[in-house]
């Protein structure tokens, strides 16, 4: 029986320069591997040690990148190790099988969203009205499934995200603040539903997971064992659950630790 490893990517396995959180003296800093280039500039990294662990993990378990990124944003990441047979993008809205979105899965997800929560149009219009150009840098619709804003955190009014979260909750949507991005996502659009589908298709008996943000909480709860780093929305809110280990490591070293934990657990299964 294969072991399924479903992991969030950004600020869980891969880190932007701003999120590395290196605290050691420079000569002791780990060597980093760049795994994403955007507009000709390096954008995301993991440690060289983590790259080796990820390659081993790909040979040991069914590794499923599980991200809120759009397919386009996901496809510019070049992870070490064998190409994953399955990947989850758009917070569960797209299930990639050998790199191609499964149309049946996508149709099931969109049917559920139409039934169970307010429309993306309504949410988009509200954001347009409520967000202030003083601190909004970009407003984006992702894959016709959810919306996000890129904001100046220093200028963002303290209660704005909380007020948005209350408005969204009443309409079946959820809000997640990650670095400079505010995500507004339908509650039925989950990473966990897509991971359950991959578990069904692969016959996996054990699912391991990791993630750092509120959008990863359902993923962690659906797994048999999970890990979260010492930074991020979940850590900041003190979120925990019985099968979840809260790691002390922060930044890119947390990514290395998570991969070590995955490998140990997968080999022990
Ligand atoms: Mg993340």
Polypeptide structure, described:
There is one protein chain. The mean pLDDT is 97. The chain has nine helices and 14 strands. The chain starts with a strand and ends with a helix. Helix 1 (48-60) runs parallel beside helix 9 (252-268). The protein has helices at residues 48-60, 71-75, 103-116, 120-130, 160-169, 191-202, 217-222, 233-236, 252-268; strands at 3-7, 32-38, 41-47, 62-65, 86-89, 94-97, 100-101, 136-142, 146-151, 173-178, 181-186, 206-210, 225-228, 244-246. Helices cover 34% and strands 26% of the residues. The protein is of the alpha/beta class and 269 residues long. The structure holds magnesium ion. Magnesium ion binds at residues 8, 10-12, 211-213.
What are the salient characteristics of this protein?
single chain; 269 residues; alpha/beta; five-stranded parallel beta sheet; four-stranded antiparallel beta sheet; 9 helices; globular; binds magnesium ion
